[in-house]
Design brief:
Length: about 475
């Protein structure tokens, strides 16, 4: 396609490969159609020339992108720089015109071939879905057995015995006076839950829009732009969930709660991102975010997200605390000696394995799209895996929570959050494996950038999965203790 050697990736490469006929047009998903006319008949409604743009230079040995004319490539004398959306800027794209010419020898029917050949085969995606569904069916069967058989028998037996016999019973009913005792460090847990709720809603809406075709890969940067804008606008749910849970835990330092919800996790992510940006700036990479864009991101954060978080927290604290189905005893009950499998750490480690098993194949394709410059377009599969992940995190956490309550260990608040959020640890391990086995990255700067951005992904995934597991377990515990007669 190029008249000179190089390794650029092109924004308008597809357009350059088209062989046009008089009066014909083309349409790329996610972009407005453009009409083209024969030479000499240009008008405001149609164009004659296909403009070829370049965005950046990439290498398989580095994660540092550079502007097209950073090296010894010819610069276009009539250079034009189209406006870019926020997602393109964050990905380091600098769109400009190219001095190279298009190749008209490629046939219309073959214009997509170079992309489709580079795409992973669909049958691997189906294998991923089937693998995830098997795990979900296994967990669903376990939960159904507990809910319909074991738990039903427990409730019937507990409701039939008298008080004297109940004193001799063992099991989850015996901790009814402690199961809703407020957790330690409830402030931090409520902040994590608020941020996790914000990320969950953002992810759901973004993937749903991508499934409908509004965020097509052809519209570069649209996915990232949508995610950032949604996160900014979803400060209200974050503040509301955090404040409501903190009030339920009996907390009274509402100002600290609101400030931590608005600033803690976003501050950690921004600090990491800022350090990565300094490295990119020192290396002269086009991925270095301009100072004006950083100011704009900060303005979105403090000007929109933070005030919306305060609004959500205001309504959260005005609401009554969530009422529990049973009263809490004044004196904590002593927890019996636990077996190895019912101790906190083994349960948490085991709880993250099954959710990770649902996503690891999709994770490979996502990492390929980020670091190996492959286009990801199977958002239908991704959305389905997202739903399966939500179900798996919920069911795995509920199962382990039930086993721990049967062992009369009532410290379930933090454990329910950490059980499903430990999936993020396996994500980190897989990212390290991917770096050493699949990538050819060399250089300290690229290595630091890879792991710096990976830590952002891990933190977001930690909050997201932990929140799912917590609320599933919270619903389960409230449900089972609401149907048991307690004297």
């Amino acid at each position: 396609v190029l008249s000179r050697p190089g390794t650029p990736s092109f924004l308008g490469l597809l357009c350059a490969l088209l062989t046009l006929r008089p009066g014909s047009g083309f349409y790329l998903p996610g972009l407005a159609p453009v009409s083209f006319c024969p030479a000499g008949s240009s008008s405001s409604d149609c164009q004659v020339n296909i403009q070829l743009f370049v965005n950046r230079l990439d290498s398989i040995e580095s994660v540092l992108p550079y502007e097209y004319d950073f090296f010894d490539f010819c610069k276009d004398d009539q250079e034009k720089r189209p406006s870019e959306n926020l997602g393109q800027v964050l990905f380091g794209e600098r769109i400009e015109t190219s001095p190279y010419k298009k190749n008209n020898n490629i046939k219309w029917a073959s214009r997509w071939d170079y992309i489709l050949v580079s795409m992973p085969h669909t049958n691997i995606q189906w294998f991923s879905i089937m693998n995830s569904l098997v795990i979900v069916l296994f967990l669903s069967g376990m939960v159904a057995m507990i809910m319909l058989r074991t738990l039903h028998k427990d409730i019937a037996r507990y409701n039939q015995v008298d008080q004297e016999e109940a004193q001799e019973e063992s099991g989850w009913k015996q901790v009814h006076g402690d199961v809703f005792r407020p957790p330690r460090n409830g402030m931090v847990l409520s902040v994590f839950l608020g941020q996790g709720a914000q990320i969950f809603i953002m992810t759901f809406i973004t993937l749903f829009l991508a499934c409908l075709g509004f965020l097509s890969p052809a519209n570069r940067g649209a996915l990232m732009t949508c995610a950032v804008v949604l996160w900014v606008l979803l400060g209200t749910p974050a503040g509301y969930v955090s404040a409501r849970m903190y009030k339920t835990f009996g907390g009274e330092k509402w100002k600290t709660n609101v400030l931590l919800t608005a600033l803690l996790c976003p501050g950690i992510i921004f600090a990491d991102f800022f350090v990565m940006n300094l490295i990119l700036w020192v290396e002269g990479s086009s991925a270095a975010i301009p100072f004006g864009t950083l100011v704009a991101v900060l303005a979105l954060w403090f000007g929109i997200s933070v005030p919306l978080t305060f609004v959500g927290a205001y309504f959260g604290f005005k609401k009554q605390a969530i009422e529990h189905p049973v009263r809490t005893n004044q004196i904590p009950r002593q927890i019996p000696e636990q077996s190895f499998f019912t101790k906190p750490l083994p349960g948490i480690i085991m709880g993250g394995i099954l959710p990770f098993g649902c996503i690891f194949i999709q994770l490979f394709f996502i990492l390929n799209s980020i670091w190996s410059h492959q286009m990801y377009y199977m958002f239908g599969f991704l959305f389905l895996v997202f739903i399966i992940l939500v179900i798996t995190c919920s069911e795995a956490t509920v199962l382990l929570c039930y086993f721990h309550l049967c062992a009369e260990d009532y410290h379930w608040w933090w454990r329910s959050f950490l059980t499903s959020s430990f999936t993020a640890f396996y994500l980190l391990v897989y990212a390290v494996h991917y770096f050493f086995s699949k990538l050819q990255i060399i250089g300290a700067a690229s290595t630091i950038l890879y792991f710096g951005y990976t830590m952002i992904m891990v933190l977001i995934f930690f909050l997201f999965t932990g929140t799912i597991g917590f609320f599933a377990c919270f619903w389960f515990v409230s449900k089972i203790y609401s149907v048991v007669k307690v004297d």
